Amino acid sequence: MIGTRLMKVADYVTGTSVADIGSDHAYLPIYLVEQQRIERAVAGEVVEGPFQAAVRNVRSEGLADKIQVRLGSGLEVIDSGEVDCITICGMGGPLISDILLTGRAKLASRPRLILQSNIHSEAVRQALQTLGYKIIAEDILKEKKHIYEIIVAEEGVMSLTEAEMKFGPLLLQEQSETFNEKWQKEYRHLTAILETIKELPAQHKKKEEIERQLQLYQEVIHFAD
């Protein structure tokens, strides 16, 4: 029912209860309960269609007594202290960041956060640092030609450098093949953009910012000879 991406997210779940925010069809909570990884879950979904699909899926698996499907935006679907762990998967980094910052009151009990962003994970790390969370694990994986990042955080203090914020402090240490594939591709993309705007006076500020980013990439990424 779930692919490699959500399977890896499931590996980081701790405690007995989970809130899966933006749960879509509730595949992750269903998997966690069926595998007896947790005792109960909340599946939160803001869109009516996926919400109804999640309700049907939970009922068809006979898990309505263990998984509550709730319609609502972000962390408003849970109470503070209700769950041990919160998962937010399959969204852009800025949206995950907004969900966390908007719902910060629901993080008072300091649940573990497992955040799988599709793009712009830097925004997630910035939010975690602001909220008093520390990254304890990171993962990067490829599924169906797409590369995803997973960030796991618990209560703690961290102060990330610019490079750590962009690339991930632990991913940066590991420098996996998938990590380098992702950022080499991004480097080529930025280089192509720079080539198209470098002679345009109106794009001077953008040109300077891209050049600064490319310099950061060159300091960090392992390029093939």
Give a topology summary.
Blueprint: H1 4-11, E1 17-21, H2 27-34, E2 40-45, H3 48-60, E3 67-71, E4 85-91, H4 93-102, E5 112-117, H5 122-131, E6 133-143, E7 146-155, H6 162-167, H7 169-174, H8 177-197, H9 204-220
Parallel strand pairs: 1-2, 1-4, 2-3, 4-5
Antiparallel strand pairs: 5-7, 6-7
Helix pairs in contact: 4-5, 8-9
How would you concisely characterize the structure shown here?
This protein is an alpha/beta fold. The protein has helices at residues 4-11, 27-34, 48-60, 93-102, 122-131, 162-167, 169-174, 177-197, 204-220; strands at residues 17-21, 40-45, 67-71, 85-91, 112-117, 133-143, 146-155.
Explained architecture:
GO terms for molecular function: tRNA (adenine(22)-N1)-methyltransferase activity. Keywords: Methyltransferase, Transferase. InterPro entries: SAM-dependent_MTases_sf, TrmK. This is tRNA (Adenine(22)-N(1))-methyltransferase TrmK. β4 (85-91), α4 and β5 form a beta-alpha-beta unit. The longest helix has 21 residues, at 177-197. This protein has two domains: 4-164, 3-Layer(aba) Sandwich (Rossmann fold), CATH 3.40.50; 179-220. The mean pLDDT is 94. With 225 residues, the chain is α/β, with parallel strands linked by helices. The protein has helices spanning 4-11, 27-34, 48-60, 93-102, 122-131, 162-167, 169-174, 177-197, 204-220, and strands at residues 17-21, 40-45, 67-71, 85-91, 112-117, 133-143, 146-155. The N and C termini lie far apart (41 Å). The protein has a seven-stranded mixed β-sheet with strand order 3-2-1-4-5-7-6, sandwiched between helices. α4 runs parallel beside α5 (122-131).
